[in-house]
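Incident log, structure service

09:12 report received: a user says their structure output differs between two submissions of the same chain.
09:20 pulled the input from the user's history:
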Amino acid sequence: MPAPASTDSRAATLALAGVIVTVILWGGNVVLLKALLSHLNPESINAGRFALAGTVLVTLAVRSGGWPRWSRRTWLTVAGVGLLGNSVFQTLFLTGIRLSPAGVAGVVNGMVPVLVLPLGLLLGQAVTRRQAAGVGLAFTGLLTLLLLTRQPGAPVTLVGMGWLLAAATAWALYTLFNRTLSAQVGALPFVAFSLTLGSLPYLLYAAPHVQLSGTPPLAWAGVALSGLGANVVAYLAWARGAQVLGAARTSVWNTLAPVIALILSTALLHERLPLTVWAAAGVILGGAALANWPGRTAAPPTSGATENAPTR
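09:34 re-ran on a clean worker, output below:
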């Protein structure tokens, strides 16, 4: 009789370890992208990441369940949502990272779970008082960051914040559509084909701009690490965590990714952000944690396997 309990405990421990690895990969990916921009243009970085991650994910999806037999409408919907969550999001996000400290980029990206809630209201989803309080707290911190852009010599610029907020909004919209589509066609097939199809327009645009010569091999290794780590390994570990631990318990861990981005940007990129930025970041992340803390929710998502962060 004790064997099943022991097995369940081991599975939960492994799932939790995978979730922790995931948030480290996502937080570190922001810093890695900032470093890669010193050696490669955004087109080269994204083209490499998309091609590698798409190939691996589609291979895994087809091996797992065969080639999808979706209707034309479903294919077009998956491709359209993938365009928003990949080509649009990555273009906006890398531009924002180039114009902002990596730590700030990670914090603003941490607004995604918060933005999902008010955007969900437009689709008829209810929000609890606790979630509303978390949203209000996070937006207070964001307003503080925006006000800091008006100070002379501030490391945070209004233009950079604009690009990052646009990226976070695009990802939040992708997340809302992702919930329904993942339940309809399956989490892995959705992420695999939405990434692959959604990145095709970007790959066509980026192809003439890819830097094939004069780039250090270590930079291409970083692109591979970003594509495989943040978009493949992290996704699979996150999906497993949501399956074993539950979406609510898993999603709150996502709040740690911006914290890791802040710490690594200070340690590895030697970014020195003023205390006011750290304080604003603390308010934003506190609000995000409050809004996503496990508990009774007014409208649980349809599918928890890819809640809030399927790929980055």
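09:41 both user submissions now match this output. Likely a transient worker issue. Closing.
09:42 reviewer note: The two ends are 41 Å apart (CA to CA). Residues 297-306 have pLDDT under 50 and may be disordered.
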